[in-house]
Each structure stands twice: as C-alpha cells, then as structure tokens.
Amino acid sequence: MKNIILDNTIIIDLLSKERSLQYPSSKDVYEYITSDNLYQVYISSSSLDNIEFVLFSELKKSLSITNKEINTLIKLTIQELLKSVKLAKTPSYMEIDFDDIEGSQIIASAKAIDAMVLTRDERMLRKYSNIAIHPDEFFTSLKKEDSQIPFLDLKSLNTQYCSEYEKAFDTVVNSGWYIQGNECKAFEREFAQYCGTKYAIGVANGLDALILILRAYKEMGIMSNGDEVIVPSNTYIASILAISQNNLVPVLVEPDMVTYLIDPNKIEEKITSKTKAIMPVHLYGQTCEMESINAIAKQYNLKVIEDSAQSHGAYYKDKRSGNLGDASGFSFYPGKNLGAIGDGGAVTTNDEELANTIRALSNYGSHKKYENLYKGVNSRLDEMQAALLRVKLRYLDDEISKRKEIANYYLENIKNDRLILPTITTNSVWHLFVIRTPKRDQLQKYLLDNGIQTLIHYPIPPHKQAAYKEWNNKSFPITEQIHNEVLSLPISGVQSLEDTKRIVEVLNDFN
Length: 511
Ligand SMILES: Cc1ncc(COP(=O)(O)O)c(C=O)c1O
Fold this sequence. Notes:
Layout: E1 2-6, H1 8-15, H2 17-22, H3 24-35, E2 39-44, H4 47-62, H5 67-84, E3 86-88, H6 101-112, E4 115-118, H7 122-127, E5 132-133, H8 135-144, H9 154-159, H10 162-175, H11 182-195, E6 199-203, H12 206-219, E7 228-232, H13 237-244, E8 249-253, E9 275-278, H14 290-300, E10 303-307, E11 315-316, E12 319-320, E13 327-331, E14 345-349, H15 352-361, E15 366-368, E16 371-372, H16 383-394, H17 396-413, E17 433-436, H18 440-449, H19 477-485, E18 486-489, H20 497-508
Parallel strand pairs: 1-2, 1-4, 2-3, 4-5, 7-8, 7-9, 9-10, 10-13
Antiparallel strand pairs: 6-14, 11-12, 13-14, 15-16, 17-18
C-alpha cells in the first residue's frame, strides 16, 4: 500500500469548480487513488487552515452568496473531503523552511508516514523531486515503479492506524506510568472480553505466555519435572521450547495431512502415566478439532493448553480461540493478525488461581510489592505496546474479514492441478494461506521471478533442528512431507485485489 498526501494546490483543484476545469488531472488522479485500496490518501493537518482561507477567496470570486453561506459551504466541503482522506500529523520534530513554511510542513507530514506528495506547486516539485509528484506525471510514473508483491506489508498495515497510534502514544507518555498501568489493564480487560474468557494477563511475548502457563501449573502442583506434554510435531519451535524450558518432556504427535493440525486420532496412543497436558496449536489460523481433544483430556485428566499465537479471533463452534481449553498463549509478534509494534503476548484463562499465579510469576514472582512467592521472571506487556494493541484490537475483526475475502478469492480462483489448496474443517482467521506441492522450491523461485514474495512455514521441522539433536534420527513422515512441500502466499488486510488477482494468474500458469 502506498501513502499519498494531497497538498493545498490539489485540494483546491478538487474543491473549486473553476480550478477543477482548469486542472482536470488533479481530479483524475484523486478518483483513481481513492478508489483503489493500493493507496491511502491523506491531507496534512497543517493544510486545513490554509485550505479554508484559499477556498474562501475562490468561492467569493465565483459565487454570489453571503460570507456566512460561504463559510457553511466550506465547512461542509471539508467535512465531506475528510470522509475519503485521512489526516496526517505534522510532526513536532520537523525542520522548518522559513522561506516556505507551509510546504515544509506538508513535506514533514509526508516523511513521517513515508508518503508521496501530489502537488502542482513548482517550488515543491523542484525542491523535493524525490517525493513530490505532479498529477500530469502520476500515471506515467506508475508504470516505472517496480511491482513487487511483498509477503506482508507490515508498514502499511500499521500506518493505517497512525493517527490513533499517535493518540495512544500521547496518552501513555502523559500518564507518567509506563509498566502495568491503565493501558495494560484496559487491554487485558478488552482482550479477555474479545476471547470470551474471564482473565487475560499481558506478558512479554508468545513464548513466555506458554512458558508461564506450564510454570504456573508446576507451582500449583499440577505438573512436575519430567512430566509429558503432547504437542504437534509440525508446530513452530516455540510451542516445544516452552515445554522443554520447564523441564517437561514434549511428546510429538503427527498432524492430519488435510488440515496440518494435530491429529486427535493419534493422541491417545501417546498418553502415559506421565502425561499432564495436551497443547493443540491452531496453526496457520485454523482451530484444532477441540471437541475430540477436550474429550481425551477429560478422560485422562489432562490440561489443555492452546497455542493461539496464530489464531486470534478464530472460532471453534461458538467459542473463540483462547477459550477452548484450560489456558491459552497468544503472541503479538508484529506479523501476527493482532501484532504489536514490537514484542508482546498474553495468556487467557477462566481459572482464577492460574491467572493469579501467572500474574505473580511474570512479575518477579511477586503478588504484592516486594513480597515474592515464587522465583519469578520479568515478563510483562509494557504500557506502550498495550496502548497500541488496544487500537489494533478494535480493527481485528475487520482485518480477519479482509483476510477471509482474499482466502476465498484464492480458493475459488486458483486452478492448477499441481497445487494443493488448504482445507478448512473448523474455522480459520487465515493468519497464513498455505498451499502445498512437491515442487515447492521451484514454485517459490518461479513466484519470486514474477515479483511475488512467499515464505515457508516452516522449512525445518522441530525434530530435525540442531537444538533437538536427541530427536534428529526420529521419523515423522507426515510432518517431514509438510515441511518439504508447504508454501505461504501473501495475505493481509492491506493486500489489494489487483495484487491478489496477479498472484492467482501467475500461480495458474505454473507448470
Ligand atoms: C505457533 C506459535 N507459537 C508460539 C509463538 C511464539 O510467539 P513469540 O514470537 O511472540 O514469542 C509463535 C510465533 O512466533 C507461533 O507461531
């Protein structure tokens, strides 16, 4: 996604009839960029005053109405404009060019969000030729740009929220309280409500969320060193690290070849007298077959610890991920569907004792200032990340529905017998759209040659990692096949339909 700031010359072209006839390319470009979700269009907050002023004299020339009527018209016109464009802040750290204060404010606003400036101002076009562009040149310059499709455009995902982030930043700085303050409390409340659980505890990252759940069960006397936890063999390494870091034993279970999720039919055969928990991982955004998993857990008196790092908002029947077992670990790593501007994580649960134990463990083992019940750690979600996550949480469902639209487009339009498309049997929030082919490496290179970036989740299975040497000779054939064949296509809330269509066309031509 590209950010574009309209400068005052363009805005007046759009708002004044006379000027729009004189400079029609301003309107042509404006209509193009506001109708395509490849672009986010802004005006600099510094422009508003000036627009009001210039518009007044333009309207005064062309209309024979009273000043009061002109002012009302200006108000309505600017209100209308702000329905299609966003306001970009003029940063306080800007360098003022005293020969062109207005222009330097617009340029500073553009630099703050990495935007181009659309302008007919000759001076600006000359002085800032690297970011300023004339509407007459807009369409020709488009053709010259490289047309790479990124796997995930994190910058655009976040700049959509920049004005709300700005407010969140000011709130935190002005509060004078930077750890475990009101923002963290509010986020925990809102996230618990979103997941449908009684408690959410913010922690430093997703790995810590899982580590702390298991550690808390140990402190509560439910698990002890050497106990076993069942976990899928094709998960991201963090799920497994959380188990071994607690001196517990990860017991790997193969996934189902259709869903890539832990196969409930293979769990029971791995249960021993030492088994204390099952850790289903809702990989790629799809919830595991929780009814079967919970039934097995109930029969053998096991805890169910969801790894929800990839499944924020995903439903299983009428409940959301995070509320499908005894406890759940979330990651807010920037690339997740609910991603922070840095690291972050949370535990959700309905178990009050577990919630209190995790809260204490994550805060040096302290439940009360300077009193330590446990040998805890420092793993807290900081105020700034919590404040930013509160903004993003409000848009999570929107992000998920945009991902669903892209996924549905892929599912309906990718038509190539060489490619195996994902099968969703429960519900997915499409954290990743993963296709499969034995010619995976060729396909990845072919897509890259066509300007499409993809990733592999994950190239090396956990049992083949050097970190788990003791497993290197073990065989998990389904897992190995998945790791050799999967490829994740670009998908996100800011991906344009145009890009999605291009990806499909290129995929359909692969042979
Ligand atoms: C399935 C899974 N579990 C756990 C994690 C760990 O989360 P974090 O990176 O926040 O530590 C991740 C994400 O990286 C993940 O994808």
